Amino acid sequence: MKAKPAELQNKTRRIEKDPKPNDPELGPLKLLPGKWANVPNLQGRGWNMIALPFVAPPPQGVPFPLNYRLLVNQYNEELEFTLVDKAVPNRGVRLSPGTPANTDQFLVTLDYQQSIKQIAADDFPKSGLAGPAGAAIHHEPGLWLHMTNGMTDSLNIARLASIPHGDSVLALGQSSEHLGRPSIPDINGLPIGVDQDLKNPYLAPYKHFNDNLFQGLFNPISPNDLLEEANKGVEIERTTVLDVDSTHPTGGVVNIPFIVRQANATVMKSTFWIQELKEKDKHGKPKLRLQYSQLVMLDFFPRVDGLPPGCCPGLIQWPHVSINTLEKVC
């Protein structure tokens, strides 16, 4: 029998609109296809914090006007993954050493669509711009990639994201798998380039929410605390970790000119913890949960950390953090 051309062989492995569950050919992405959401027992587990340039009169007790406000949101989310291809080909050749040879790379590719609706929001100083409950506050299309071969520096996964504000992101990283629950690191939500003592009047918005937790739960100074809280009493048998970072070589964040001038997004780091629970679903298979923590650094305004001029040039880096705990629904 005559062998099929390589291109045709590749095409026969490609798009499957309904991939089989837990398909090992998808590698570390095998549990993602389907829809994830804040089901009734996980309603309102999405939390967001972001500092934004803003001119307002000084809050009570602050001796000077602030040039920013701190916005916090509680939200629900739908996050859907679909299989694009099990073998997207990147063509290459090896010219040396030795005999020339093809060195093609093949990528598993998943499409994702993220939609977020606000439950509640607040800011300090008050702006009147926080928005109502039920508002659609974020939509993000993107791709997850698994490099099945031809990896560099053991980087075997990547995430590409497009954000309607005018940002495009490429973040690369590594996957891992281990038994039991995830180890979720702390994140410091305070800006870098500012004296981080909460007695510093410039940090009045952070002190406000530290003293008055948003919705009685969320503290923007240590946002990942609520991910740990969501895991209490949950028996997690296995965790797959997808950890990506835009600062790896060839990664990065690209923004439209207004964003670059006003509040430049320079770094994106995110970690997904995909959890297989001891609890079973209606089909007798482990229930699946997904937790994530995402950190975007926004650079705006000169540093004000009290160090001598010229010692630490640059701009303040403001952490923009989003976290959630979702369950797979189909």
Short description:
The protein has four helices and 14 strands.
3D architecture notes:
This protein has 330 residues and is mainly beta. It has a single domain (6-328), classed as Calycin beta-barrel core domain (Lipocalin, Beta Barrel), CATH 2.40.128.20. It has 4 helices and 14 strands. Strand 12 (264-280) and strand 13 (286-302) form a beta hairpin. The longest helix is centred in the middle third of the chain and has 8 residues, at 204-211. The two termini are 41 Å apart. Residues 1-12 have low confidence and may be disordered.
Class by SSE composition: mainly beta
Instruction: Give the total of domains.
Output: 1
The number of helical elements comes to 4
Strand content: over 45%
**Shape label:** globular
CATH class: Mainly Beta
How are the SSEs ordered, and which strands pair?
Layout lengths: L5 H7 L21 E4 L8 E8 L14 E23 L2 E2 L6 E2 L2 E20 L11 E12 L9 E7 L3 E13 L24 H8 L13 H6 L5 E10 L6 E4 L1 H6 L1 E17 L5 E17 L12 E14 L2
Which features characterize this protein?
single chain; 330 residues; mainly beta; Lipocalin; twelve-stranded antiparallel β-sheet; two-stranded antiparallel sheet; disordered N terminus
